[in-house]
Amino acid sequence: MGVAQVQNELSVYQSMAARFDTAAEKLKLDEGLKKYLRTPNREIIVHIPVLMDSGQLEVFDGFRVQHSIARGPAKGGIRYSPDVTLDEIRGLAAEMTWKCAVVNIPFGGAKGGIICDPNQLSLGELERITRRYTAEILDYIGPERDVPAPDMNTNEQTMAWIMDTYSMHVRHTVTASVTGKPLDLGGSRGRREATGRGCMIVCHEALKRFGRRIDTTRVIIQGFGNVGSQAARLMYEAGYKIIGVADVHGGIFNTHGLDIHALIDYVSEHKTVVGFPDGESIGNQEILEQDCDVLIPAATESVITSKNADRIKARILVEGANSPTTPPADDILFDRGVFVVPDILANAGGVTVSYFEWVQDRQGYFWPEVDVNERLKHIQVSAFNDVVRYGEKHNVNNRIAAYMLAIDRVSFSLKLRGIYA
Fold this sequence. Notes:
- The chain has a 7-stranded mixed beta sheet with strand order 9-8-7-6-10-11-12, sandwiched between helices. A 5-stranded mixed beta sheet has the order 1-2-4-3-5.
- It is globular.
- The protein has 2 domains: 161 residues, Rossmann fold (3-Layer(aba) Sandwich); 153 residues, NAD(P)-binding Rossmann-like Domain (Rossmann fold).
- The mean pLDDT is 94.
- The protein is an alpha/beta fold and 421 residues long.
């Protein structure tokens, strides 16, 4: 495999485009409609001047890509990272369109990002960056236009700043302008656990297909941020045996199972799973290749590639992260009989409960957590069954089935609306 091929394999946008093309071809989409669906609705590039604590003026680059508004307002997270690129944001925005369509909620897709290293910034600097970024994209966001949410290195506090900045400009409080907010500012109960809970729900459904019991199912989770830690905790409490966990620094492995409650306490004190006494140390890439029944990559993109896909021993792969598997790896996994629950289905719990938060904010009435979780389960189970049936009907893997289902729904909405010209 040449350098260009490797780069394409690892590109989020190229991965999305390759899967889109395969699904669109199988759907026999009209060439013009195919071009329309591949093209983002809007790409915004902003340059953010910020006065640093030192008194020095710095300029940061930020992006917001709105891929589709065919089924409703654009929806998607905002990430802060030195590695943010427009190509990555473009690909993730399209993924959000398909993710919302797979679970059949009335949103389109968007994504945002700022090129910065939040670990090197003070809380005041982060607030100033966030508020100026919000002000720069203000004309393009809002509860009826584009609803941001937290993503990599952003959180409830970031969303509170965005909501406040938006509200100050329009001169009244608009809680529905963002999701993933603190409860006291219009957040939804169950939102923090939603993505991890969604991973557990689809894992339950996958086990049913294979006639497996939860208490004999061994799970490895790569990533111990919000998604990975919540999935680990919820699955541990449900009776799964969590035998391996890794974060950016390394991993911990125990074939007899880890005490996840003790591990969470350890991580809150040490900021890493490395050194946890009840297990053996293991590399965060090596852990992907260990023998287990369920593997949940919940860290970052492109960790399962053509280089290591043939060494994955899990029977079921549940994608907690966005785009953790590259298209060439998909083919290898499918040929080896690995049952993949793709990211646009597996980790859609977050955007689903974000939708619930948006609905609650707009109606000014908030639901008990038990109702949030029950409604999430209903949507995730329905979407899982829709995808699996679609795959069986068209004889494709679950990823292409999810894309086909999503593209079918978005294209149907576009045909009904027509093209405004």
